[in-house]
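Support case: uracil complex. Customer-provided input:
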Amino acid sequence: MQTKSFRIDRYISKKIGINRRDIKLMLAQGRIEINGELVREITTIVEEFDRVLLDGKLLQAKQPIYIMMNKPIGVVSATKDKLHKTVIDLLPKALLGNHEVAHDLHIVGRLDLNTSGLLLLTNDSRWSRKLMSPEEKVNKVYQVTLQNELADEYVAAFSAGMYFEFEDITTQPAELKIVSKHVAEVVLKEGKYHQIKRMFGRFRNPVLALHRSSIGNLLLDTSLAEGESRVLTSDEVSTIFDR
Ligand code: URA
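Agent response - structure generated as follows:
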């Protein structure tokens, strides 16, 4: 997900369909305001949640929204799907406030159709990009139930990383704790396609159930029933990154 910031001339031109050259004049005439300040520089950058006015008329005033969902299995982590219900379909209208917000949301780190647990949705692409960035190394914790018994050798293999030929990448060191014969807890710092299933696939050990319980410092709120969601507190939005 790209960060939605644009240079002012590109932003206004896209928004109201006028020539970028004419925007230089508008700026010189003091007709454009961002967050209560007149702007005159063509190099000014408009950020996603800036309040932008042209001739006193509002062009943009979006509020950021951050939602956690307890995703049930059988629901797709997508905004649209022809076959299945999507996580967006599960969001209560009351939670979104204004209906248009739903169109603006994206998912931060998808879960597979048959994976349950903590899923985050937001319209803040800067926040989601930071959460998913490999440099940030944000932990994602999963509980995994396996068909066959776990063995100690899995721990070293997860920690060493595995080479995925299809993408030509080696996975970051991952932590695996054996909880019981068929249950493991896995901590990933990234989210490659079907990563956990593929990692256990190396041992020909099919994953029977997969559940995400936390992302960074944010734990799935256990008062949320499957399919339920709630807005994050501002504290949760910022402390998710703390180590
Ligand atoms: N790994 C998987 O295989 N599936 C998920 O949904 C998440 C991590």
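Residues 111-112, 115, 194-197, 210 surround uracil (CB under 6 Å).

Case will auto-close in a few days if no follow-up is received.
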